[in-house]
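$ fold --in a.seq
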Amino acid sequence: AAEAAETLLSKFSSQIIDGLKCEAQELGSIAEKRTGVAYKSEDFVEEKGIPVVRLKEINTMVPTVFLSNSENYANVWLERGDIILAKTCFSTGAMCIWPGPRAVLNQNAIMLRAKPGLEQKFLYLWLSQQVSTFLQSQLADPNFYPYIREKDLMTWQVPVPPLKEQRRIVTYLDGLQAKVDDLRRLQAETQKELDALMPSILAKAFAGEL
């Protein structure tokens, strides 16, 4: 049921965004982009440095390595609310809205920050759908190497309805996501109860008490 709800949420999101009747603009004209930096491994430390966001942190959103000498690099600084997108490697297409703290972005990922007139969360919802569609279409090619070209990405056409409409869409889809999350939590709690009950049932079965 949780998986079906997640699929339904994705379908609703796609229908809403694809159905928008408004002007579209190139992503590069309405969002700032920065490309992650390749750091030397010897400059990483386990603590007391600047947090580094690598591809794995796009999923965990918890930095585990730090940069000891950030002043030696032309860093891409991440602020709370920035969109991070993995453009290559095993995580191609992974995305998140960075929750903080202030950090620097490692290689193979890009940062996107909406310009005035575009809601960051609306951009994230639109981009999530577009990246998923792009990767699904490319995977049909047996020679495709999972990679999102920055140059091509920044030419993608973004529908830009009025801010009021953007916020209404975000609120609606956030509400649906909350319902899916509640369903997942309920499923997890039910599974824990079943897991706890099973040993007792087995014990009674072997003892001939059922």
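$ fold --in b.seq
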Amino acid sequence: MSCDSLDIIPFKNKNKLQVNIPGSKSISNRALILAVLNNKPVKLNGILKSEDVEIMISCLRELGIKIENQADGEALLVNGTSGVIPSQKGDLNVGNAGTVARFLTALLALQQRGEFTLDGSEAMRKRPMKGLIVALESHGTKFEFCGDEYCFPFKIICKGLTSDNWEIDASNSSQIISAILLIAPLISGNTHINLINGTVSRPFVNMTLEMMKEFAQEISGNLIISDDRYEIPCFQYQLTQNEYQIEPDATAASYFLSLPIAIGGDIHVNGIQDCKLQGDIEFCKIISKCGLSLSKTDNGIEVSFIDHINGGNFDFNDISDTFLTLAALSPLLDSPLKIYGIAHTRKQETDRVSGMVNELRKLGLNIEEEHDSIYIIPHVDLNKFIEQRPVEIDTYKDHRFAMSFAILGSHDLFKDQQPWIRILDPQCCSKTFPRFFDVLSQCRSESR
């Protein structure tokens, strides 16, 4: 694969394909933080091998946390320290990893002493951090900004955290409230949290709360969750079996669950039948409403293309990471598609709403863009609107653009098995799914 671009070779599926999905990034990075907060060593099985997770591991090692590879890298042994960081100084780079940026900042703020400098990529310097920083500042942490206020890079001066009432604005990112929730049990006294202006992607907050319970052998006091209010008692994280299994990534699964829209036939996605932590598994309901046939098996989910695929109106606020998956396939739908609840994705790796509109317009589609939604009208004969091929798809250094449009490009639009979609910067997939194009190529090989 070229570093600069990759032409997607179309194919038609004539067999029942089997696909394995790597571990969840969201669960992997939460599990790493929870393992550090644990009071004993924790073995993490099924850890994702990706750029975001490697950044988290690297930062934790920089801070003196002992992390050992086991089982050929399929597992990690993390030396839990009850949240106490061995190092009291450090220069850390969080890249463009949102979970690392927010979770690590909160973990450092928990420390009784220490000074740390944090920075990220150019894109990360523009991503929402203010809600988290303001909350930490009001409870004892000092920040010194090296550039724009409330943005990376900054120095964090740790003085511990008070258990006064927390007022948190997580309206731009659910990772802000998740970051505080993860460390809340180790703040002295009961932590009362009031969420201002609600939040987006609520299933990720639910994921955080469920994992907190899984890593707590016993919670002394009541963990109260009511609308936008949380009361977290002080308790010690202690994983009962000192071992934790990470689920396959439901967001990554969305690409292959929807692949039959492009190539037809049947696909069995292994290991995702019991995803209980990840809200993105709800993507299954949306593509089922569009016309794909889905059924849960003992060891996965099987999806089949029956006849045709329709559009519809869908709220993606809770599962916004998957909106690009369906939007990119909109040219193949038989009726218009409206996706809404996605305004917050304008502040993710890139402005995902405008980026998706820009790339779909290269295919000649009629699109109405609003701040919180896109309305897409597919063409009956899409091939007549492609002026030159392959169409080059900009990915904006965003892995989800690369993977979503690669699924579209797998459709044999011109019935000649020749590429009509070219993905620019395909290696951006290393952020969460480094082997994505290998898995797609395997599907192509086994489809004949």
